[in-house]
Write a structure and sequence with these properties.
7% helix, little secondary structure, 83 residues, methyltransferase, 0% strand
Length: 83
């Protein structure tokens, strides 16, 4: 799962120190998190949009998705210019 935070007019709180540490995935996160203080210790909550029922771009699917509707090939509107 990939997630990100979208900010408008972002202004970090005074004393905030940005870090690329990910305490949610790091087994030693307790050690790194305990060294942070103030606003740097807060994990920003986020709202997940969508769900896992959509197509996954990292897998393949059968061409016949709907048994009531036979598959028919449709060529791309324009061929690649440098295949």
């Amino acid at each position: 799962v990939e997630a990100f935070v979208v900010c408008r007019g972002y202004s970090p709180p005074e004393g905030y120190v940005p870090t690329m540490d990910n305490p949610l995935l790091d087994p030693d996160a307790g050690l790194a998190l305990s060294q942070l203080s103030g606003p740097s210790r807060v994990i920003v909550p986020f709202v997940a949009c969508g769900d896992l029922s959509a197509y996954d771009p990292d897998r393949t699917y059968p061409l016949q998705l709907d048994p009531q509707k036979p598959y028919s090939y449709v060529p791309p509107p324009r061929a690649p210019h440098r295949p």
